Amino acid sequence: MTDTALPRSKPGPLAWLTALIMALVVGLGLLQLWRLVNPPRAETAALNPACDLHSGPCTATFSDGSQLTLSISPQPIVQQEPLTLQVRISGLTVDSMQADIVGIGMNMGYNRPALTARPDGHFSGRAILPVCVLTEMPWEIRLMAQTPDRGLLVAPFRFTTSKRQG
């Protein structure tokens, strides 16, 4: 019996160079994606444990005294219902803002709506919390304010939602 298979040739320098370039392109793309999802922060305000977004606005204060105040409606805050986020700004110039909404202790997927600048200089937008199987679900909204002079400022706000009885 004769072997009719063609002999295998070793990859040449051009194949290795092509593979190296492809690996670099993929690596740089992944790095850019990482920076987009996790931008470098200039400052994160301290979490206010007394904050209760279910009953009214909450304020985060930065080291220079500037503030972001978040209010959410309707109240109480529930999952899978359209929410309106409103942010008042004090002592800051903000170019753009996003609300990064994360589940505490449970990955609830990427949920980062952009907020729109209003004529009065504040920001607002719409969001929705995904459904969770837990009876009570803790959440954190991280307001991400891009400023022209200080960089990215982050203000965390926490609250818990309860499953509706029905």
Which short descriptors sum up this protein?
166 residues; alpha+beta; Immunoglobulin-like; 2 domains; 1 helix
Share of residues in strands: 35-45%
Shape: elongated
Main sheet?
A: 9 strands, mixed
Find the structural class using helix and strand composition: alpha+beta
Q: Based on the coordinates given, report the CATH architecture of the largest domain.
A: Sandwich
CATH homology group of the largest domain? Macroglobulin (MG2) domain
Mean pLDDT: 86
In total, the number of domains comes to 2
Assign a percent range to the helix content.
10-25%
Q: What order do the SSEs take from the amino end to the carboxyl end, as H and E? A: HEEEEEEEEE
So what's the oligomer here?
single chain
Instruction: Please give the radius of gyration in angstroms.
Output: 23 Å
Distance separating the two termini = 75 Å
SS summary, helix count:
1
**What order do the strands of the largest sheet run in, or round the barrel if closed?**
1-9-8-5-6-7-4-3-2
The CATH topology name of the largest domain reads Immunoglobulin-like
Poorly predicted ranges: none
Give the strand tally: 9
Give an overview in words.
The chain is α+β, with helices and mostly antiparallel strands. It folds into 2 domains: about 10-40; about 45-160, Macroglobulin (MG2) domain (Immunoglobulin-like, Sandwich). The chain has one helix at about 15-35; strands at about 45, 60, 65-75, 80-90, 95-105, 115, 125-130, 135-145, 150-160. A hairpin with a 3-residue loop joins β8 (about 135-145) and β9 (about 150-160). It is elongated. The mean pLDDT is about 85.
